[in-house]
Design a protein that fits this description.
The protein is of the alpha+beta class and 93 residues long. Helices cover 42% and strands 27% of the residues. Strands 2-1-3 form a 3-stranded antiparallel sheet, with helices on one face.
């Protein structure tokens, strides 16, 4: 039994079938929220987050922006954010 489990594990590793990487990929069915931000005098950075629900996409967006806010504060700069809407593949905007 242990040999069977070892063989299956080797097949997953050999074929590069990593489930976590596949789970975080944004698909056509995901809701994607777009936004842009800039820190101080730097150029605007266009970014997006996606999830299967609008709340999840917004939560991921807030996590990204909180991280950027910390970077801005550490550098003594100001973070500017512009929200550019969400794409819902089912048309519920």
């Amino acid at each position: 039994m242990n040999k069977l489990i070892s063989c299956i594990a080797l097949v997953f590793v050999g074929l590069n079938l990593s489930l976590p990487a596949q789970a975080i990929r944004v698909t056509e069915q995901d809701i994607v929220c777009y936004f842009k931000y800039k820190i101080g005098d730097q150029a605007w950075v266009l970014d997006s987050t996606g999830a299967t629900t609008r709340a999840g996409a917004r939560r991921f967006r807030e996590q990204v922006l909180q991280r950027q806010q910390r970077l801005a504060e550490d550098g003594g700069e100001e973070l500017q954010v512009a929200y550019t809407g969400c794409r819902d593949p089912y048309g519920h905007n």
